[in-house]
Amino acid sequence: MALVNPLDPNHDIETKKLAEFFNETLGFCPNSVLTMQHRPAISKAFINLNKAVMANEGRVTSALKRMIAWVSSNATGCRYCQAHAIRAAERYGAEQEQLDNIWEYRTHPAFSEAERAALDFSLHASQVPNAVDAKIKDRLYKYWDEGEIVEMLGVISLFGYLNRWNDSMGTTIEGGAVESADQYLGKHGWEKGKHDGSLY
Fold first, then answer.
1. Which of 8, 94, 161, 164 could pair with 63 as two cysteines, CB 3.0-4.6 Å apart?
2. Taking the CB of residue 141, how many other CB atoms lie within 10 A of it?
3. Contact call for residues 39 and 14 (beta carbons, < 8 A)
4. Which residue intervals define the domain Carboxymuconolactone decarboxylase-like in the entry (predicted)?
């Protein structure tokens, strides 16, 4: 079981209505949100932040945002968020070749130089200590404007929160997320880990 049990989806009606957003992104309401609703102000604020961060304002596509999330979650080791990010990337139209080769984004021809710059930014920004430097900045500015960089860092920061939340919580992973992770990440050793419901 997780550190704290998720509550019934009907526990907080405002959270339930806001959480309809996840039916589009994932096909289900995540157990992380159902756990956050122990304090509904947190679940509602999180969903609204998620919606703002994932809104399309420029050329940073929904699929790229989810791949940025995956790189960030992979860097921090959160298997729950890795699975959710790759599932959402799939649902938002990431190319099959990109999904199959996300681990090799730096060299695989399915990724453009602009996408590589964005994904490297995610990798460096997610490390502790933070590794964003002038070289990363220069590469970003070659392909992206400041508003787009803000969007990317919004995704990275949102998943920083989620990585801490779900790895500390040992959030039980949902079947749909497992299915996507097995398909795209299993060949590289992805497994449920502490998110199989038996950590605590």
1. 94
2. 12
3. no
4. 40-120
